[in-house]
Design a protein that fits this description.
Chain lengths: 357, 107
C-alpha cells in the first residue's frame, strides 16, 4: 500500500490521520494475509481430509456384514493379519500431528493401538487427528493389523502385540467430561480412620470419587476393572458352590421368597409366629408387604423349605437365592437383602436334616 | 404367578440382534438335548403321568426361523384378526406355535 501524495504541506492532524490510515491498512493487510494463510491451511487440510475419509468417522459405513470379530485375548493367533475389533477407547495420547497412541480395551483385556500417518497405508493426518480426539470411553469399531512389538508394552494386558490402525469408526461417542473416570473407581474408598491418620486426601494419585458420585453414575463405576473382577469372582463362588455340590448329588431348588408367614427357623417357631398378630410378627426382623387384601412376608431364610424337601425324601438339596432381613444396623454383617448359598442333607443316623448355610 | 424363578440373559450385540437369536437357539437346543440325554429316566416318569409328546429337535443350524411379518400372515390365514405390529396374545402365541409345528413337520 502506498500513501497518497499530497502537494500541500500536511497539517499535524492530517499527518496523524494519514498515519492512522496507514496503520489501519497495514492491519487489514496482515489480517487478510492471515486469512489467506488460514484458507490455504484449511484447503491443505481439506485435501488431506478428502484423502481416504472412508477410513474413519462417527458413522460406521458397515451394515450387517458378519465380520469375524477378534478378541484381544486371542490376538496372538492373528499376527500380521488385518483384524476387526469392537472395543472401548480407554485413552488417546497425542505424540505429534502424525502419531497418536490409543489404549483399547475389551473387558479386562487391553492393547495399544498406533495411528501413524502413512499415505500408502491409507492413514491421513486428518485420521490421526480424529483418533487423537476420540473421547475416552467411546465405543469403536477398529480395523487394524496385528503387529508383534519389539519391546514389551507395560501399560496394557496384551504386551507382545499392538494394533496398527487402518480404519477407525466411533460407534458411541462418550460425553466430555464424564462425571467420573472408571479409573477413579479403581482406587480404594478411603477409610475414615486412615484419612484422619494421614491427615490428607491427596497423594493417592488422582481425585477421590465419593461413594455418592459412584452410585449416581453406577454404569460408569461398573466399567472399572475392579468391579468386573468382583462380579466375576461372585459368579465364580456361585458356580463352584454348585459344581461341588452337584457332583455330590445335591439338587438346586428354588424356594418361595414371598411368604404367608415369617420364615425364621424351624417348624415350631414357624407355627408360633403364625399365631402372632401382624404387628408382633412384623416387629421381628422380617419385611412385611401388602399382598392384595392380606399381608405377606419376605423370606429371611429358605430353612423351612429345605427341611421340607429333606422330609420329602430329597436326600440333598441346595439353594442360591436372595433372602431379606429387616436388620436396622449399619454394619457389613447386617444386610437387608443378600444372596444366600445354603445346602441341606439327610443325616442317615437320625433321619433328621442337618443344615448348613 | 406372583413369584417365579426367571432365567435371564443379556448380551452385547456386535452387529445385530440375530446374534441373540443364535445364542438362544443354541441354548434351547442344549437344554432340550441335555434333558433327553441326562434326564431320560425322570422325563419318562413324568410322561407316565402327564401325556407329553417327545421333543422334536431340529439339528443345530436347521431351526426354523419365521419373521414377524410371516408369523402375522400365518395367523391371519388361520382366521385371526391382528394388526401388522400388534403383540401376540397368549392364545395367538399358542396357535402360531401349532401352525409352525404343522408347517415344519410337513416339509
Amino acid at each position: 500500500m502506498t500513501e497518497p501524495e499530497t502537494s500541500r504541506q500536511p497539517s499535524k492532524s492530517a499527518l496523524k490521520k494519514a498515519a492512522k490510515a496507514a496503520e489501519k491498512a497495514k492491519k487489514k493487510a496482515e489480517k487478510s494475509a492471515k486469512l489467506q494463510d488460514e484458507l490455504q491451511h484449511r484447503q491443505r487440510e481439506a485435501v488431506d481430509d478428502e484423502f481416504n475419509t472412508e477410513s474413519y468417522g462417527e458413522q460406521p459405513s458397515l451394515q450387517t456384514t458378519h465380520h469375524d470379530w477378534v478378541q484381544f485375548s486371542k490376538i496372538d493367533k492373528h499376527e500380521d493379519q488385518l483384524c476387526i475389533f469392537r472395543c472401548v477407547v480407554e485413552n488417546a495420547r497425542i505424540q505429534s500431528a502424525k502419531l497418536v497412541f490409543l489404549t483399547l480395551s475389551q473387558g479386562l483385556e487391553s492393547i495399544q493401538m498406533v495411528v501413524s500417518e502413512n499415505r500408502e497405508e491409507g492413514v491421513s493426518k486428518a485420521m490421526v487427528r480424529f483418533a487423537g480426539n476420540i473421547p475416552p470411553e467411546s465405543v469403536c469399531t477398529i480395523f487394524g493389523i496385528v503387529k508383534r512389538t519389539s519391546e514389551k508394552i507395560k501399560s496394557t494386558t496384551v504386551q507382545g502385540f499392538e494394533v496398527h490402525a487402518k480404519k477407525i469408526y466411533i460407534l458411541s461417542k462418550a460425553q466430555v467430561p464424564l462425571p467420573l473416570q472408571p479409573a477413579d473407581s479403581e482406587r480404594p474408598l478411603p477409610l475414615e480412620e486412615m484419612k484422619e491418620a494421614s491427615g490428607e486426601d491427596e497423594g493417592i494419585g488422582g481425585p477421590l470419587v465419593s461413594l455418592n458420585t459412584r452410585l449416581n453414575n453406577r454404569v460408569l463405576d461398573l466399567r472399572a476393572k475392579i468391579n468386573h473382577c468382583i462380579f466375576i469372582i461372585k459368579d465364580g463362588v456361585d458356580s463352584l458352590f454348585q459344581e461341588f455340590l452337584r457332583a455330590r448329588h445335591f439338587i438346586r431348588i428354588h424356594t418361595p421368597k414371598i411368604l404367608g408367614a415369617p420364615s425364621e427357623g424351624d417348624v415350631t417357631s414357624y407355627k408360633i409366629l403364625e399365631r402372632l398378630s401382624d404387628t408382633e410378627a412384623g416387629g421381628s426382623n422380617v419385611f412385611r408387604l401388602d399382598y392384595f387384601q392380606g399381608t405377606a412376608y419376605l423370606a429371611q431364610s429358605p430353612q423351612i423349605y429345605k427341611q421340607m424337601a429333606i422330609q420329602g425324601r430329597f436326600p440333598r438339596v441346595m439353594e442360591v437365592g436372595s433372602v431379606f432381613r429387616a436388620e436396622n444396623s449399619n454394619t457389613p454383617r447386617h444386610l437387608t437383602g443378600m444372596c444366600c448359598l445354603c445346602y441341606h442333607e439327610t443325616n442317615p443316623r437320625t433321619s433328621f436334616p442337618d443344615s448348613k448355610s | 404367578m406372583t413369584e417365579f424363578t426367571g432365567l435371564d440373559m443379556e448380551m452385547e450385540i456386535l452387529e445385530d440382534y440375530h446374534e441373540v437369536v443364535d445364542m438362544l437357539e443354541r441354548l434351547m437346543l442344549f437344554i432340550f438335548q441335555g434333558l433327553n440325554e441326562r434326564y431320560a429316566i425322570e422325563t419318562e416318569l413324568v410322561r407316565a403321568v402327564y401325556a407329553v409328546e417327545p421333543f422334536k429337535l431340529p439339528e443345530a443350524g436347521n431351526v426354523p426361523r419365521i419373521e414377524f411379518a410371516e408369523g402375522i400372515r400365518m395367523l391371519r390365514e388361520a382366521g385371526e384378526t391382528i394388526g401388522d405390529y400388534d403383540d401376540l396374545t397368549t392364545p395367538q402365541e399358542k396357535k402360531l406355535g401349532q401352525l409352525v409345528l404343522e408347517k415344519v413337520t410337513l416339509t
